[in-house]
From TrEMBL:
InterPro entries: TR_Rrf2-type_CS, Tscrpt_reg_Rrf2, WH-like_DNA-bd_sf, WH_DNA-bd_sf. SUPFAM superfamilies: Winged helix' DNA-binding domain (SSF46785). This is Rrf2 family protein. Signal peptide: none annotated. Keywords: DNA-binding. PROSITE patterns: HTH_RRF2_1 (PS01332), HTH_RRF2_2 (PS51197). NCBIfam families: rrf2_super (TIGR00738). Gene3D superfamilies: Winged helix-like DNA-binding domain superfamily/Winged helix DNA-binding domain. It comes from Peribacillus deserti.
Length: 151
């Protein structure tokens, strides 16, 4: 899995809207706060709107606002919706599995599956609210610690 600029910029826009819950935010303001061009944001916000994460208001005081609460916006879902599967290799993907001719004897597939599961574990347990409040999942030794700040 690789998060492209599309995924990163969409998350930046969602964070701006999350900071401004209950307020319609102009695309110009989102652009200034995310350092993403208005033209690219128009495309991203349209996609986020079609996916049900944001809504828009037309007119002079128009702009965008969150369609869901920050706790309802799951980062794993957003990334999957925008970027596709979380697996680093198609042979280890659950949603977009593609067979490999070496699969029967492949010693790498368990590694790719572990990476997929670890990425999914973190992203699926993280909401936009967690990012806004800096409640992140992180590794502490060999364990995952959820909703604490690192030492």
């Amino acid at each position: 899995m690789k998060v492209s600029s599309k995924g990163e910029y969409a998350l930046r826009a969602l964070l701006v809207l999350g900071h401004e819950q209950g307020r319609v935010v102009s695309i110009q303001e989102i652009s200034e706060k995310t350092l993403v061009t208005v033209h690219y944001l128009e495309q991203l916000l349209l996609q986020l709107k079609k996916l049900g994460y944001v809504s828009s208001k037309r007119g002079a005081k128009g702009g965008y606002f969150l369609h869901k609460t920050v706790e309802q916006i799951n980062i794993g879902e957003v990334i999957r919706d925008l970027e596709g599967p979380l697996s680093p290799m198609a042979c280890a993907s659950i949603t977009k599995y593609e067979p490999c001719p070496l699969e029967g004897s492949c010693q790498l597939k368990p590694l790719w599956s572990l990476i997929r599961d670890t990425i999914a574990f973190v992203l699926e347990r993280t909401t936009l609210g967690d990012l806004l409040e800096n409640r992140l999942t992180f590794l502490k030794g060999d364990d995952f610690v959820v909703f604490e700040k690192p030492d």
